[in-house]
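re: that complex we talked abt at group meeting.

here r the seqs, copy pasted straight from the sheet so there may be weird spacing, ignore it
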Amino acid sequence: MIFKPSWRSLLLSTTTVFAVGLSTPGAKADIPDENYQPVLAHLLGTVMPPKIDEFHAASEELTEGFRDFCSDPDNGGLEETRAAYHAAMDIWQEIQPWRMGPLVANGRDQHIEYWPDKHGTAARQFRKLMFDKPAAYTDPEQLSGASAALQGFPALEEVLFADDHGNQMIAADENGVFLCQYGTAIATNLGTLSGELQAEWPDFATAMENAGPDSMDYPSAKFAATDLYRALHEGLLIISTQKLARPLGENAEDARASRGESPLAGRSLRNIEHNLIGLFAIYDGTWGDIGEEGQGLAALIDNSLLDRSFKLNWQTVADTVADLPPSVAEVLVQSDGYATLSDLKGQIEFLTMLVENDVGGNTQLGGGFNALDGD
Amino acid sequence: MKIAKILGTAALVSTLGAQAYAAPAAKDVLTTYADIAHAGYEDSLITAKELQAAIDELVANPSAATFDAAKSAWLASRAPYQQTEVYRFGNAIVDDWEGKVNAWPLDEGLIDYVETGLYGEESEENPAYTANVIANPTLTISGETIDASTIDAALLESLHEIDDVEANVATGYHAIEFLLWGQDLNGTDAGAGERKWTDYAAGDACTNGNCDRRSEYLQAAADLMVSDLEWITEQWAEGGEARKTVLEGDGVPGLTAIVTGMGSLSYGELGGERTKLGLLLHDPEEEHDCFSDNTHNSHYYDALGIQNVYLGRYTRVDGSVVEGPSLSDLVAANDAALDTELRGKLAASVVAGKVMVTRAKGGEAFDQLIAMGNEDGNAVVQAFVDALVDQTKSIEQIIAAVGIDGIEFEGSDSLDNPSAVN
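got the structure back, here u go
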């Protein structure tokens, strides 16, 4: 794997920090359980709720946009609806990696976005749907009981961006009328799902913040905080092993942009950019203009050098993604496109390693190698 | 499917030697575990040979009667095999091998004709999606020309997972199942695949063409499955590699294998990929035995297999019983309450599986149970998932109770919160 010079130099600087950590004599004392409570309170009680509100608002705007477009469909309306889709998808991609509590309860995250679709289920079910055009799929309430593959963002992407669907909706032919009604139902259902998430989150956050011996669900604050660490770790793993590895395939000849996330909407890499924003909030405690720097998992790390290095590395990766086009397809057509994406994957894997070793070890939340106690 | 990560450590092995006197030795527990594995694979082999004979009879004398007999033999062969699935996770020798006999799900268009209106003509993921080996003596897959003029075991092995696509399943139970039942085109309505016996008829009576090549494929697949099952049975016999591996060392690796198998099958594989995913998608294509509508039995016997290895007791196809010192005995000696709890939960998942079997016998198969709008049926399937998830939490506690550490169970995106049991 070829790393860019700036990336390599950061790798070296972090290795130095890692070595310093290893040289610390003796094992560190356990972090008191009460130290985890402010982190839980900040991330779950302060940082996340406004973002869920934002997601819900974006979903409702998407629904309104769809209704307006379908009442008198034209090209301008289609583009506005696609823009509303992107806005809702942006905030969803930031929330998506927080895989815990109401976000994953009853498969809610997968109803919002069923991906990856390893068996090609969505395409098969969508083909049948367009053949039968059942009325149930134009009713948001009935749609909520349908296949997860037919009721979230990927289904909406199919309606808005695939084949000739836009033209069919503008032409208001038989397929177009159904697509408009179905798309509106999907958007409405997304509003319902985000509203449920909004309603259920406060109780979950309170339960996590009150973790302790009296709690039935979370016997300690550390136990509760483990969910945050796992979300950070798994979020990075999903980016490298699914969002990048799937389109990259085994080699350049095997690479296919269509295996990425949101390929029709041309935003596979834009999704990763927003994933990183949401994930960094878990570490740092800031999410846009929400939150306070250093009040995430970083608050548990008593090593300012390591903290600075970690944030610098993260920023480098975030900048790399931001500098790329939004879609994997646009990168792969470049002469060095495959190498560029492979390099990005390597950078994400490096961040994952830092999370395992440095964040996991210093917060005492990870099960992997602990850089400080040297075990 | 990724292999469950096992990080067994001997750090806490002293626990094994420090429990109450009533506890069995780890080696004795592992011997029972290996004995049950050997019996289960031997039963799978016995029933596979009966299937092989029935298929030979079908090919020699095609008729509705011989066709139904072959299908009955296939159904019978699933009962012992599914009880061995708990050995897959945690035993690398089994996991490396099992894809040859029970790979799933499959893109059946690789093998034979399909109804492309619903199945589709092509797949982004699979260049061999509609290769149709039976109809095409010469195949071109990803630019490579393959001579398929002779259908034999070697050809099937070369096609299995061709192009590194897992859905290219050319061998094993499900390839045979497809050749006996055909596609289930009933969606979530009642009914299994409706292949006619005349797909194996001679001369003008042959339907859908290439009956001779279809027969060759079916026989080759059956022969291959028998030889594969012979091999794995030998691995669990006295002196076999699988048996030696679980019995070697201080007992920790073997106990780790048992717990990993129980947890991974309960949670990620059976609870997640094979059951919850189907419910999430309301999709009959996501059912394990999708051509024959035998999924209720497959799931039930999987759950029973998990219980078998914990209790150290397996009832063979001839009615005899293999039993001995068990993991349950070992857990009970260290934590009697946990043993009682887990016995109860394992029994509950078996009962939840039995409810699906009962519903199927009443005319409501798994694909109907997971149908959109079938709230009562969905609840039956969800209860099975819940029981499996619940037992996994207790299985995880075995790790501390018997002094093993560092196990990760197979996860699943389709379950509510995979991290909850990790």
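couple things i noticed - The mean pLDDT of chain A is 90. Residues 8-18+31-38+211-364 of chain A form one domain.
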